Amino acid sequence: MTTALPLLYRVHGREVETYDTVTLTLEPMDGSLPASAPGQFTMLTAFGIGEVPISISGTAAPDGRLAQTLRAVGAVTRALYHATPGSVVGLRGPYGVGWDLSAARGRDVVIVAGGIGIAPVWPVLQAVLAHRRVHRRVTVLIGARTPRDIVFGAEIAELRERSDVHVDITVDQASNEWLGRTGVVTTLLADAPIDPELTDAYVCGPEVMMRFTADALLRLGVPAGRIQLTLERNMRCGGGLCGHCQLGPYLICRDGPVVTYDRTADLLTVREL
Amino acid sequence: MSTPTAAGVSVMDVSALCVLVDVLRDRGYAVIGPTVRDGAIVLDELDSAERLPFGWGVTLDAGTYRLRRRDDGAAFGHAAGPQSWKSYVHPARERLWSRDGDGPVVAADETPRRPYAFLGVRPCDLRALGILDRVLGQGRHPDQGYARRRDGVFIVAVECIEPGRTCFCGSMGSGPAAEEGYDLALTELLDGSGSVSSSPGTPTYLIRSGSPAGTDVLAELPATPADAELVAHARDAVDAAAERMGRSLPADGLRELMVENRESPHWDDVAARCVTCGNCTMVCPTCFCTTTEDVTDLTGEHAERWRRWDSCFDLDFSYIHGGSVRMSGASRYRQWITHKLSTWHDQFGSTGCVGCGRCIAWCPVGIDITEEVAMLRAGSPDERTTAGDGAEGPR
Fold first, then answer.
1. What is A7-95's CATH superfamily?
2. Residue B390: pLDDT above 70?
3. What are the GO MF terms of this UniProt record (chain B) (predicted)?
């Protein structure tokens, strides 16, 4: 059980990912949250301004540090974007159902991320690489609006050095310096080394991108129950009490944010549900 | 006495209500009950049973609530008012915590100084409290403030023998009889049949206990065992009330009906009438949605978080970066009614509707949940309004 009171965390590190995105490393000041599972999120407070749900992009046990990557899009995330090392934020959680990683043992893994969607799936990649040999081929497909919007660029560059991971990146709009691919992220699937029936997919990005990616995976032959997505809805409490994050029968904070496509495909196509 | 008595049921006259309130207050409860104020029967703390709305009734219909004088002395001769008990166990505004400067986060202590005794809880509202218990009290992350306020509430239920025109608890299986969840249950008889001292028009009360705490309080009341005939008479009166509901909302297939109609054109028909004011969610005894607001003083040194009721009819309710998920009024009404009647089952194991009829009476444009469901059942709105006019068939 977690409380409605935020615990105090100090900003330990602040890594600028892009012009609007930072990764904050947060360390507990007086008691830490219970251990989190990949794909879970916290409610992150900028004191006096407000609270937002942010996925946990990394944990550094045993000192209880958490990494949270966020994009400045509103009053709260703008304040958090500017939170300098030493400043204090509040944390509640962890909340929600995370990624099912056991599903992918002995199978191909494909991770598809759009924009800042790479942050919630990053722990999946970490877990997969930590036990690389229990999986077959590993593919990471990344889409961003422009080259400037690529989050975790340095880590991705490192990842590309590995021979045991297939990495591909595309941008919607190229710059003059961009020598890579352009187009939506689903176009990368054609070259992905996967055996669809033996594939587990982990998808995170804007909802429309996830829907098109999931449909493309389905067409390739990946079963809908093997496609995991993480959904975003307005959340005020994180614990299934405020009613904001409903999607049909689900409370996304409680029954998600990670869901499988077989349970949600028909809901995601209903406008304004 | 020669007449057989009915086990566990006692009878008392109207003066015993004063004793009941006094006993509860002596035991440390804040007694909350109905009283007349501002042209409505509202809930308030009662220092005496004399403040009960004796002789007042209400006239209800879609978009209509009017007090009326009764020709008897009933204390509970009224159907649901604008408020429900959720105002007390799940208040409309609540401070969650505060923080000064670099100090710790301090929980706000909003626990009531005295536990509540709810006097006059209708069976529909009793069911609503049970639903809130499941939603707010029994999830993975229970609302601790709710638990503090709800714990030890003493409930005096009052069964219904005179449903209002907007009532449909009979359809929802939540009334008019009180079945569980009360400490004491009253049945108010107005036809002189109690005859402790009464004449027609003066209420007599059957009273029974539903808990050890109830039995304890009952022992202090001037009540005598009721004879079986009177108990049977009261039972008949309550049963008859089930047949006299002002409205009905047949429950069969309701869950599926709502899901099947996600894309129905009927939502646009409702949206043409609905002003998305959110009144229905405010008066609903089970609507539990909340939002939070963080505030500071002028120096910015003192920060607080408040929680307040929110409504799925509010445009901001579904806001995420990029815009609200539910922009149209049609989608917001669909969300409310579908959640209430269908997806509530998926989320919390029961319906979210208890048939109290408040949303019908307090809708400023008279939208009626029972009628909307009937229209969905019947098919497209065209078929209803312009039947035989070449309207499209059901989709």
1. Translation factors (2.40.30.10)
2. no
3. iron-sulfur cluster binding; metal ion binding
Q: pLDDT by residue (tens digit) across B12-57? A: 999 999 999 999 999 999 999 999 999 999 999 999 999 999 999 9
Q: Which of B141, B300, B330 sits opposite A1 (nearest CB)?
A: B141
Please count the CA atoms within 13 angstroms of the CA of B183 that sit on its side-chain side. 20
Question: Which conformational region is residue B28 in: left (phi greater than 0), alpha (psi within -120 to 50 degrees), or beta?
Answer: left
Collect all residues of chain B within an 8 Å Cβ-Cβ radius of residue A271.
331
> What burial letters (b/e) apply to B45-78, b meaning 16+ CB within 10 Å?
bbeebebbbbbbbbebbbbebebeebebbbbbbb
Name the residue of chain B whose CA is nearest to A96's CA: B140
> Residues spanned by CATH 2.40.30.10 within chain A?
7-95
For residues A134 and A109, is the Cβ–Cβ distance under 8 A? no
- What pLDDT does residue B395 have? 35
Provide the pairing of β-strand A88-95 with A41-46: antiparallel
Q: Is the pLDDT of residue A53 over 50?
A: yes
On the 0-12 / 13-18 / 19+ scale of CB atoms within 10 A, A163 is: exposed
Render the burial of B289-312: b for 16+ CB within 10 Å, e for the rest: bbbbebeeeeeeeebbbbbebbbb
From B270's Cα to the closest Cα of chain A, the distance in A is 16
- Give the residue from A153, A185, A147, A148 showing the smallest Cα distance to A168: A185
Instruction: Show me where the domains of chain B are located.
Output: 7-243, 254-383
Could you count the other beta carbons within 10 Å of the beta carbon of residue B200? 10
Helix axes B369-378, B329-338, angle to 10 degrees: 100
Domain with CATH 3.40.50.80 in chain A: 102-269
Rounded CA separation A46/A52 (Å): 9
pLDDT over threshold 50, residue A141: yes
Top CATH class of A102-269 equals alpha beta
Continuous H helices in B244-388: 254-260, 266-271, 279-283, 329-338, 344-348, 358-361, 369-378, 381-385
Q: Assess contact for B41 and B83: CB atoms under 8 A.
A: no
pLDDT at B381 over 50: no
pLDDT in tens, A78-123: 999 999 999 999 999 999 999 999 989 999 999 999 999 999 999 9
Q: Of the candidates A227, A245, A228, which has an alpha carbon nearest to the alpha carbon of residue A236?
A: A245
Residue B112's pLDDT band, with cuts at 50, 70 and 90, is confident
- Beta strands A65-71; A50-60: pairing state: antiparallel
Q: Report the alpha-carbon distance of residue A58 to residue A56 in Å, rounded.
A: 6
Distance of residue B145 Cα from the nearest chain A Cα, in angstroms:
9
- Has this prediction a pTM greater than 0.90? yes
Bridge-based pairing of strands A138-144 and A165-171 is parallel
Nearest to B121 by CA among B71, B86, B165: B86
Contact B317 A90 (CB under 8 A): no
pLDDT in tens, B153-191: 999 999 999 999 999 999 999 999 999 999 999 999 998
pLDDT in the model for residue A17? 96
With bands split at pLDDT 50, 70 and 90, how would you rate the model's confidence at B197? low
Mean pLDDT within A171-192: 95
Could you give the CA distance from residue A259 to residue B334 in angstroms, rounded to a whole number? 23
Mean of pLDDT values over B294-319:
96
